[in-house]
Write a structure and sequence with these properties.
Jelly Rolls, 276 residues
């Protein structure tokens, strides 16, 4: 077995986003724009009394968005006809493909909205596929109990269990993990890009301290050891790199500048959702 270590650490940076929202961003900023196949990771916290704040209608093309909630509720709506509310422990995996226009707005509740959004790249031959929406309720997400940890498994395989998100090009692993002892060793697919993001409680990953709101990029290997006090919580995410060029402009991610210009032209001329 080959243990993964920490290659780099990135502390989240507060960044304005959407309408009246401040997110805590690691991937997707100028000094860390891509971690192939991942394009963005935002931790979002919206106070329960923040009126009008959220992410009004906006477009995407060429990648997938993943929203995962820790607390509070968000309502999704898009022009494809999908609509729903995701609450604590729920997720949605939206494949924008050739184009989608959607919104994500908080729903009034007695909890602050606290969750994550991850952008996952699509390989070049999948960028213009029809959009798709996978609604993933907490009830469908398996709880995996291993030695020293408990995991909510949104995507991928862990100790014989399989997450409910299926048929994603980069074969992702996405889990919300809580330590139940002071040490846990988790398997990771060799060759896949992987990171750990600290949510609560300090961690030591591969022998290196990882504070909360910090992303640890991992070296290659087929397992990673995480230490901390019981109750420490973190995301672990992995996926197969596309190894393709990335051209991005706001909510559009393609492979070339010419494809970005064509996308902007589609948007400006009102044929964005009809492109094929």
């Amino acid at each position: 077995m080959t243990d993964r270590k920490v290659e780099r650490l990135y502390q989240a940076v507060a960044t304005p986003e959407g309408q009246g929202v401040t997110v805590h961003r690691t991937i997707g900023r100028p000094d860390f724009s891509v971690l192939d196949p991942f394009l963005l990771l935002d931790e979002m916290v919206l106070p329960k009394d923040a009126k009008g704040a959220g992410f009004p209608e906006h477009p995407h093309r060429g990648f997938e968005t993943v929203t995962y909630m820790l607390s509070g509720r968000m309502e999704h709506g898009d022009r494809v006809g999908n609509k729903g509310v995701i609450g604590p422990g729920d997720a949605q995996w939206m494949t924008a493909g050739r184009g989608i226009i959607h919104s994500e707005m908080p729903v009034a509740s007695d909890e602050d909205v606290h969750g994550f959004q991850l952008w996952v790249n699509l390989p070049s031959d999948k960028k213009m596929i029809p959009p798709r929406y996978q609604d993933v309720t907490k009830a469908t997400i398996p709880t995996v109990n291993g030695t020293g940890f408990e995991a909510q498994l949104v995507a991928g395989e862990l100790l014989g269990e399989t997450g409910p998100v299926r048929d994603i090009a980069v074969k992702p692993f996405f889990a919300d993990i809580t330590l139940t002892a002071e040490k846990a060793t988790l398997p990771v697919v060799m060759g896949h890009t992987a990171f750990v993001y600290g949510i609560k409680g300090g961690l030591v990953v591969g022998g290196q301290p990882v504070p909360t709101r910090t992303l640890a990029v991992l070296t290659d290997g087929d397992q990673v050891t995480v230490k901390g006090k019981p109750g420490a919580q973190f995301l672990m995410v992995a996926g197969a790199p596309t190894r393709e060029p990335v051209a991005r402009y706001g909510p559009f991610v393609m492979n070339t500048r010419e494809e970005i210009l064509a996308t902007i032209d589609d948007w400006n001329k009102g044929r964005f959702l009809d492109a094929s």
